[in-house]
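Lay summary. Proteins are chains of building blocks that fold into shapes, and those shapes determine what they do. In this project we predict the shape from the chain. Here is one chain we studied, written as its sequence of building blocks.
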Amino acid sequence: MTDGEPLVLTDTSDGVTTVTLNRPAARNALSRALTHALWDAMNAAEADPAVRAVVLTGADPAFCAGVDLAEVSGAVPPSAAPRSPGAGPERGANGLFRFVPAMTKPVIAAVNGPAVTGGLEVALQCTFLVASERARFADTHARLGVMPGGGATVLLARSIGARRAIEMSLTGNFLDAAAALRLGLVNHVVPHRDLLPFAQQLANDIADNHGPAVRRLLAHYHQLANTSTLDEAHLLEGYLAETWRPGTSQIAARRADVTARGRDQTRGPNT
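And here is the predicted shape, written in a compact code that computers can read:
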């Protein structure tokens, strides 16, 4: 980023907002000013009725190197004044420090390079992850002698299993993109040049669906994370099915589009 450029870039097209962390010289380290700018950009996308999905990425060469240690240590002055409760990144009632506000719309992390510690937590707070072949992932809290609070132990363990998460946290070692895919941390790995178009196409696929249904399904998946038994999870889904009304009357109108899209996605190369 050069002087005068915004810390976060946003672009909205066809119902998809792409948000780019824009401190490339600092490997998109999370200064207070950058966390505020990210918070504001995500809230703006949430509030915009034209936006149905969000892609979050970083300006090359990194996705996010984590919290800006120079600023946290006092080696450089604070980049912004603190905000009042509810106006910016903060620890919620459930204890999670949110870099990304709670969203009713899906957020796809397009991880273009290293996502480290706080940067890993930013990615984990997204709905799901897509990675460039250049992506690398690490939790270096133990190397720094600090404790995580942005979801590293909880969200990472849910993504790759407790034992793998413990190994990452205690060693601080990096996972490459292929290992992240194998362990289930990311949904896809694509060539670097294809990352943003690929993530945006997934976001477009979501945006083309029935908006209220997408948001309700996303909220349902979040609710499932708090269930403790299989029966409780099934009960929530049954309640969802029995109480859902918006969109039911549109099945006939949307049927042709759904059928055509399904045929396009299942048609073989010679059909």
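What the prediction tells us: Residues 142 and 171 are 8 Å apart (CA to CA).
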